[in-house]
Every structure is written in C-alpha cells, then in structure tokens.
Write a structure and sequence with these properties.
Length: 268
C-alpha cells in the first residue's frame, strides 16, 4: 500500500511581474521546486533572504497562484486557501480592536461556526497556549511572545492537518524563542500535525526538523538533508553533540557558498 504524502510540491515555479514607470519588472521567485512532506513530518525550509521561502509557503497555503507546477495536499490539488492548512506569520497580524479570544475565533467565524461552539474551541486553545488569564486582553496589552502564542492558537483552533509557519519566532528574544520552540515540539508530537517551517536559523532547523530543505538565491532547491539527531532534542545538549556541530557547519558552509558580494535577490 502506498501512502499519499501530506504535501506534494511538483515542479513549482513562480514569476512575479510588476509594472514600474512603464517597464515590466520580472522576478523569478521559485524555479522548478519539487519535494514531498510525509504526514506528521516536520520539514524546515532555509535559504538566503529573497530566495522564495515565503512565496513557497504562500503557494502551498493557496494565497498565491503558481506560474507553473502544482501543489497537492493529501492528494488534492490546491486552488485556494482551505481550513486543512493554517499559516502562522512572522508579522503576526492580530486585529488590534479584537480581544485575544476574538482574534482566535476569527477563522471559525469566517467558516460560519456558531458563537457558542467557537467560543468553546477558542477558549480551549487559549488555555492550551497558557493564555487563559489574558483571554480578554487586546493584542497591544501582550508581549511579543504572547502575541505569537495567540497567532499559533489562531492557527490550531481550525484543527488543520498542516501548519505552515513563516519564521514565526524570528522577532522574539532568545529565551522566549526557546520556550516557544519547546511548546511547538510538544504540540507537534501531541497533535501529529504536518509542519512546513521557514527559518533563517540553522540551529532552529536542526532542533525542530525531521528534514531540512535548503534553497538558493535562484529560487531552486540546493540541498535536502534528513536530520539524524535523536528526539527529544534540547539545545543545551545538542550544543555538545558532535553530529549536530558537523551538520551545522556543513549547512552554514552551503548557505554561504556562492553568496559573496550578493546583497539582494535577482531581478531578471
Ligand atoms: N508580491 C510580490 N510582487 C513582486 N515581487 C515579489 C512579491 N513577493 C515577493 N517578491 C519577490 O520574490 C522574491 C522572493 O521573495 P520571498 O518573500 O518569497 O523571499 P524570502 O525567501 O521569503 O525572503 P526573506 O528571507 O527575506 O523573508 C524576492 O525577490 C521578492 O522581491
Ligand atoms: Mg520571507
């Protein structure tokens, strides 16, 4: 019996076209990207700024259409956003005029879930993220780490099969970041979600992932590795692990390779 992968990305290319002073600016953000993610796997995407990571996540989320190629989720072609996939952004994007509960309820509301049921589900997620005391607070009354927790609760409340996370901890201090990384691993182990996770941090990718996909500045996949480190993984222990150090060095070398003198991404 063959098991359908959770996410199948097939020969994906994305070209952005923008008109500026009557000139058409063309940017190739993704170039023939193909990979699969098995159910319950945690896969990270790393690569230099502008290499197409956010674009890739947005195409998988169905927020942006591909120029060529396709994405299948649980074997079905993606033609737009769906409740099976939830995205967590770096810029969390909470609505400032809504309380924590009302922000977490938003997706359920948009899907027509009744008031009592959505309140119950939102409160359960808020409790699960340790935010029960802050349910009636507004986003601006919360720290950055708490806001990011609300962002994660907002994604989980939809009970998606797939979590798409775009540098969700990038703006947090080191201590809060470590705490949320640990919580994410617990959620992933408990709920058995499939996670596609974008990060700039090689340490974070090695800590969290089953597999790491590295992209290059041309929007292509440069390298894919399985992460052979035993779980549970704790950063304070990994730091002294020889295999962790070797993998980290090799990934950093590949990230830097061909990167000299290049400041931003290409425009064609
Ligand atoms: N809406 C858009 N219109 C035009 N060009 C875009 C658009 N979104 C992204 N691009 C371009 O596509 C390329 C890839 O951008 P993308 O945001 O996917 O990169 P990224 O890998 O997420 O970068 P970062 O690590 O800085 O977040 C860049 O050259 C960017 O300028
Ligand atoms: Mg990005």
């Amino acid at each position: 019996m063959t098991i359908t992968p959770s996410i199948q990305v097939k020969h994906l290319s994305k070209i952005y076209e923008r008109v500026n002073k009557k000139r058409v600016l063309v940017t190739r953000a993704l170039d023939d990207v193909s990979f699969t993610v098995n159910r319950n796997n945690f896969v990270s995407i790393i690569g230099p700024s502008g290499c197409g990571k956010t674009t890739l996540l947005r195409v998988v989320a169905g927020l942006v259409s591909a120029t060529e190629g396709e994405v299948l989720i649980e074997g079905k072609q993606v033609n737009g956003p769906g409740p099976d996939r939830a995205m967590v952004f770096q810029m969390i994007g909470l609505l400032p005029w809504r309380t924590v509960t009302e922000n977490v309820e938003l997706g359920l509301e948009l899907h027509g879930v009744g008031r009592a049921q959505r309140r119950e589900k939102a409160e359960a997620q808020i409790g699960g993220m340790g935010l029960a005391k802050f349910a009636s607070h507004y986003p601006w009354e919360l720290s950055g780490g708490m806001q990011q927790r609300v962002g994660i609760a907002r994604a989980l409340v939809m009970d998606p099969t797939t979590l798409l996370m775009d540098e969700p901890f990038g703006a947090l201090d080191a201590l809060t970041r470590t705490k949320l990384q640990d919580e994410l691993v617990l959620i992933w182990e408990r709920d058995r979600k499939t996670v596609l996770f974008v990060t700039h941090s090689v340490d974070e990718a090695l800590l969290l992932s089953d597999r790491i996909i590295m992209m290059n500045r041309e929007g292509r996949i440069k390298r894919e590795i399985e992460v052979p480190l035993r779980r549970p993984r704790v950063m304070t222990e990994l730091m002294f692990d020889r295999r962790f150090a070797e993998l980290k060095r090799s990934l950093l070398e590949d990230l830097r390779d061909g990167d000299e003198g290049v400041v931003e991404c290409r425009n064609e």
